[in-house]
Design a protein that fits this description.
binds adenosine-5'-triphosphate, single chain, 2 domains, T4SS_component, 48% helix, binds magnesium ion, 19 helices, globular, P-loop_NTPase
Length: 426
């Protein structure tokens, strides 16, 4: 069973639970509202119900509070399914490799994601800070790093331009004529000056991740700590703490972007497996605008078919790039609006009519308007109240148990990690 309760509705003196059903959830939920109105709490409550119901979930939490809250409430029978990814746990770093690919399709998808991520982090408005030249070099370099039986990580990309032995070895594995020509023709005729200029450019982007021990020990792994398709098929519970206070904002964004890209790749792999029944999986992304590239827009329209139900929340519409915003209003089945500012209220009032902009700006905390997908159709808007966060009786020390189990199963000891990555980076 994967229905969950979203909140309650009062109508003519009667209180009803607002139930959100499995098939409708695969059409996704979008939630917007000012700070402190109760958005994260709605996700926490829903995710906890999923966990209790035996569902597979991933919760990407930009603050860490929601993940900590969920950890304390993990039921004993789900303990073995939890993967708690806390990048600030430097003693047992996880491996997260964007470029680990198992087939040609995945390779292309991941290299494109790699480029999108660099745009997102370093040139979000696409004003030319990155540009076609860097894109071209990055694409070819990433495909080269991935070549060969061991594969490679994004941190190995600059080494291609510094270490001729490494370059030679990697090139010997290449089979794609375009990439072979990139090295054999284009690079061979590029001046030393131009090469070093490009290398500086690469280093200015990759350097901060290579010089930061925490990030190097995660991104430098060639193998991911867990496989994302198995995670979905086995109904695991991936709880990701991306608290920027602990790891830094750009690092938090980088890791979240990679995670969402890897999940997308896993979903697309499901697509290639044909139409067999797929275990549903539920993704919660709080403040999702930080963790999604433009590719995400197409995932929204397609992922329903592949059993991924997404829940996306953020504070105000100005945070979303146009393609994402259009895709949301074109594809999402369930909309929830808490109190918003006047500008957003004017835009949202069109979606929520007959609710007006004045209704939307004067909502009390923990109250919302919702358009709920019911049996494949989006309902007209009605009001609701969210559920308070459930209290736990006594202390269960569940968080400590999960951390200990997860470290053993998915983390690598720091010294071993450092030694391996030092060798790989040359
Ligand atoms: N229905 C509720 N009843 C009582 N308290 C609630 C309810 N929902 C949330 N709260 C409490 O209100 C506070 C703010 O809620 P929450 O963190 O979910 O807001 P938010 O919309 O996610 O804010 P932000 O955008 O800043 O992240 C929290 O302390 C939470 O425990
Ligand atoms: Mg929040």
């Amino acid at each position: 069973m994967s229905n969950v309760t979203l909140g309650v509705n009062e109508f003519r003196g009667r209180t009803r639970l607002i139930e959100y059903a499995e098939n409708d959830r695969l059409r996704h939920m979008y939630m917007v509202g000012k700070t402190g109105v109760g958005k994260s709490t709605v996700f926490q409550n829903m995710c906890l119900q999923d966990i209790r119901n035996g569902q597979g979930v991933c919760f990407i939490d930009p603050h860490g509070d929601s993940v900590d809250w969920l950890l304390e409430r993990i039921p004993e029978h789900r303990l073995q399914h939890v993967i708690h990814f806390d990048p600030s746990d430097t003693a047992f770093p996880f491996g997260l490799n964007l470029l680990e690919a198992r087939n040609e399709f995945e390779k292309d998808f991941l290299v494109n994601e790699c480029i999108q991520i660099f745009y997102k982090l370093f040139d979000p408005g696409k004003v030319g800070m990155i540009g076609p030249q860097f894109e071209h070099w990055l694409r070819n370099a990433a495909l080269t790093v991935m070549a060969g039986p061991e594969g490679g990580s994004i941190l190995e990309i600059p080494r291609l331009f510094i270490d001729p032995e490494f370059e030679k070895k990697k090139r010997s594995y290449l089979t794609d004529p375009l990439v072979i020509d990139f090295w054999g023709k284009q690079m061979a005729s590029t001046s030393g000056f131009h090469k070093s200029e490009m290398l500086n450019y690469f280093m200015s982007k990759f350097g901060p991740f290579m010089n930061n021990a925490l990030m190097r020990n995660i991104l430098g792994h060639r193998v991911n700590s867990f496989e994302f398709d198995k995670l979905m098929d086995n109904r695991n519970i991936l709880l990701v703490n991306l608290s920027k206070g602990k790891i830094g904002e750009i690092n938090a964004h980088m890791l979240g972007l990679i995670l969402v890209s890897r999940l997308q790749a896993a979903v697309l792999k499901r697509a290639n497996q044909g139409g067999a029944y797929r275990t549903p999986f539920y993704l919660y992304v709080d403040e999702f605008q930080n963790f999604t590239t433009d590719t995400f827009a197409s995932l929204l329209s397609e992922s329903r078919k592949y059993g991924l139900g997404m829940h996306l929340a953020h504070q105000y519409l100005g945070q979303l790039p146009d393609p994402i915003r259009d895709s949301i209003f074109g594809n999402v089945g369930t909309f929830v609006a808490f109190e918003v500012g006047i500008e957003d209220a004017q835009l949202l009032a069109k979606e929520f009519a007959p609710i007006t902009d004045l209704d939307l700006i004067s909502l009390p905390r923990f109250n919302f308007y919702i358009k709920l997908m019911i049996d494949g159709k989006t309902s007209s808007s009605f009001s609701g109240t969210s559920l308070p966060p459930e209290q736990v009786a006594g202390t269960r020390n569940m968080k400590e148990k999960v951390i200990a189990l997860t470290r053993l199963a998915y983390g690598w000891p720091r010294l071993l990690t450092e030694e391996t990555i030092r060798r790989q980076l040359g």
